[in-house]
Structures are given as C-alpha cells and as structure tokens.
Amino acid sequence: MALTQTELKREVAREALAYVEDGKILGVGTGSTVDQFIDLLPTIREKIPACVSSSERSTVRLEALGFKVLDMNEVDEIGVYVDGADEIDPRYSMIKGGGGALTREKIVASISKRFVCIADESKKVGILGNFPLPVEVIPMAARAIKARLEAFGAEVTLRDFVTDNQCHILDARGLEILEPEILEREINSWPGVVTVGLFAERGADVLLLGTNEGVKTFTR
Questions:
Q1: Where do the DSSP E strands lie in the chain?
Q2: Active-site residue, 105 included
Q3: List of residues 6+ apart from 74 with CB closer than 8 A
Q4: Is residue 2 pLDDT above 80, yes or no?
Q5: By the 8 A CB rule, do 94 and 81 touch?
Q6: Exposed e or buried b for every residue in 125-159, given b needs 16+ CB within 10 A?
Q7: Strand ordering across the sheet containing 198-199
C-alpha cells in the first residue's frame, strides 16, 4: 500500500537522524518535513549540545522539547544542517522559501559543513521553476523588484506574509530555471533584495528522498 505524504516525510526524517554529529551544533531548518525531524530528535538528545534554528517556528518547537537554541552570532560553525526543499534538481540546487524562512535558512546553510536535504519524492525535479520562486525584499523595493522579475517573464504576486525579518516576499511563477547559480547571483545583486530562494551556490550535499520503495540516498 502506498504511503501517505506525511508517512514519507516521517520516514525520511527518521533516516536523517543518522547524519547528526555527536557533540556538534545542529542546524535545523523549517517546514513540515523538518517538523517531523524535530519531533524525533529527543531519541538522540544526548548527541546534541545545542541547535541553531532558521525560523521562530522551529525555535519554539525545539525549545518546547527541551533543546538549547543558540543565536547565530554565538556560533562559528555548524556540523550538519538538516532542512527540506520545495524543489531540488539533479545538481542539488534547490528552491526554498515556501514557508517564508529563506533568508535565515540561507544564513544557517552558509556556515554549515554539511547540508542534508530531506524531502519526499514529489520535490525532485529535472528543472527548477514549477514551484514559485520566493524573493524576500525590503518593503519599499517590492514594486521595483516585481517589475524586474516580470521582465524575466514571471507572473509575480506579493505574498500576504511578513517574514521573521519584517520583510515581504514576492513569489515568481512561470520561470524555467536552467542556470540556477547565475540567476541566484543576478537576483541577489538587485537593490532591495534580501535574498532569493535559490540555493544553488550553496546547494545540498546529501539528499534523502522519501519514496514508496524506501528512503533513497543521493550524495554529491
């Protein structure tokens, strides 16, 4: 019998526990698959001295389970960062930010030695872009950035959402992202952009993919 999406997420989250490094700061992302991972962390509590979280939502969940959550400014390096993705391509580039935590996720990923992406098989794609590309922007720049994204052929909407950084998110639909690293650098260079939800320059090192045949592991 086919597993539900929630069951797939649970299985892949359980597999990710093996990648947590004993005695090292653990980076924890955001989203429904990561929620499953957080819920399983008490089973390996003794391995985790502290965590760094990419969102207020995950911080609340971790602290409720008794884990110490450090501010990024207290940490020089993270051993392993475990997070999900909205899409991931064969080169381990990702679209992230469906939950609105893209900037903090990118910051945590930047100081992590290893990035483990956990996802169900619906998230693995040949070309990025079917999922709307999130762009976090300074509020006063939203109109200008929207126009620049539309010039690329995207249909752009302002999300009814305020990020943990008190910024706005534009969602760009209809893009076929053939060169994610180039597009990431381009959009990040625009004045008013906090960051774009492309994780190509710092993509995943390991992909744990939940399927009905079991969890499949892909490594760079």
A1: 26-28, 51-53, 69-70, 78-83, 87-88, 94-95, 112-120, 133-137, 155-158, 168-173, 193-196, 198-199, 206-211, 214-219
A2: yes
A3: none
A4: no
A5: no
A6: beebbebbbbbbbbeebbeebbebbeeeebebeeb
A7: 87-88, 94-95, 198-199
Cα distance between residue 200 and residue 188, in whole Å: 12
Runs of H (alpha helix) within 17-161? 32-40, 56-64, 102-110, 142-151
8-state DSSP, 63? H
Structure confidence at residue 159 (pLDDT): 98
* pLDDT one-digit tens code per residue, 67-93: 999 999 999 999 999 999 999 999 999
Q: Which of 15, 87, 105, 184 is catalytic?
A: 105
Owner of token pair 């997070």: 83
In 3D space, the residue among 173, 169, 181 whose CA is nearest the CA of residue 150 turns out to be: 173
Segment 119-138 shows an average pLDDT of 96
